[in-house]
Amino acid sequence: MSSNRIVVIGAGVTGLTTALLLSKNSANDVTVVAKHMPGDSDIEYASPWAGASYLPLGAKGSENAKYEKATWPALRDLAQHSPESGVHFQETTVQNRRKDQDTATGKWAAELTSPSPWFKDIMPDFRNLPSDQLPPGIDNAQRFTSVCINPAIYLPWLVTQCMKNGCVFKRASLTHIADAADAHHSGSKADVVVNCTGLGSRTLGGVADDQVHPIRGQIIMVRNDPGSMTSISGSDDGPEEVAYIFPRAAGGGTIIGGTYQKNNWDPLPDPNFANRIMQRALKLDPRLVKPGQGVEGLDIIRHGVGLRPGRTDGVRIEKDQVNGVKIVHNYGHGGFGYQTSWSCAEKAAGLVHDTLLQRDRAKL
Predict the structure, then answer these.
(1) How far apart are the C-alpha atoms of 14 and 347, rounded to whole Å?
(2) Are β-strands 254-259 and 127-128 bridged in parallel, bridged antiparallel, or unpaired?
């Protein structure tokens, strides 16, 4: 029986997770084609720059919330049973200021900072903090156990899991999505192409989705470890500036950020933003440094900028056909690619399966 030839374009967290799920079916022969691979640090390649964490952002009842809810069990199980994946449990505190509700960051984090979010029933140890435990200026806060992900470990781990299942990885820079059908490692034309190009879907021929846009995030990686994750709804520095602290697993450093700047393509760290990021992080969790040290106590590893692959109408996971090539799209995840990765990949893999069934029926 012939195998199903599948090409996945993109090696970010979305592409790698999709390839992994597809490769678990022994009938599938998967090639991952990407311009950037784990280990690269190009501005076009968003996944390495992520915090990364599981802090649900989808509004109650939304598709994003459904994706986030369905992905939590997979990330939880990795933290419990596969520490080599770079996923580990972290206590997290989320603080909210009502005055941020109309800002870009406040709207982005509205569900996360709600006193009664939908995820309160699935996250371990969820509890609202009593009013007498709230820092000055904070209107409500909650604490729960979540996970933090070290992309420097997790992305290569996904690659190795894919390779165990027979996936082949190829570097290539494609200008048109239909060309991917000719990139399968067998030398034969692919039966299905899965588009996981993120921000690249804006310019990729045959897709050219003008709803795709960058959401610029600036971060600093430091050696300091406060011992838990913390985030807040916004800041007084600007409507697109926020504060969060994510200690990564296995010596991966601590990520402090950040910004949420839509349609900003600037790839260079801004020193003014960097200074404000450090000041906000120390205010958010003084445990980052020893008493009295201030920002001088931050041991900086590097500054970075990532462009989150946003999409105006949200994630696109659907079937398509371009120049006779059967396509399944899975892109547009904005700043929540990791925390929806498994469920979005499952949906995309299901559409690939449906496409292959339709092909087989047509042959009968």
Answers:
(1) 12
(2) unpaired
Please state, in angstroms and rounded to a whole number, the distance separating the CA atoms of residues 237 and 216.
16
Has 308 been labeled as part of a binding site?
A: yes
Judging by beta carbons within 10 Å of its beta carbon (0-12, 13-18, 19+), is residue 168 exposed, middle or buried? middle
Q: Is 363 exposed, middle or buried (0-12, 13-18, 19+ CB in 10 A)?
A: exposed
What residues does each domain of the chain span?
A: 4-48+152-211+313-362, 87-149+213-311
Please say whether the beta carbons of 139 and 98 come within 8 A. yes
197 annotated to bind ligand: yes
| Residue pLDDT, tens place only, 11-60 | 999 999 999 999 999 999 999 999 999 999 888 899 999 999 999 999 99
Distance CA 354, CA 73 (A): 25
Specify the CATH number of the domain 4-48+152-211+313-362.
3.40.50.720
Residue whose C-alpha is closest to residue 29's, from 2, 55, 10, 50: 2
8 Å CB contact between 335 and 57: yes
Query: 312: annotated binding-site residue?
Result: no
Angstrom distance (rounded) from CA 28 to CA 348: 14
pLDDT of residue 2: 67
The response to whether 244 counts as a known ligand-binding position is yes
Average pLDDT, the chain: 96
Mean pLDDT on 167-180: 97
| CATH architecture designation of domain 87-149+213-311 | 2-Layer Sandwich (3.30)
Note whether 22 and 8 are within 8 A (CB). yes
3 state DSSP class of 308:
strand
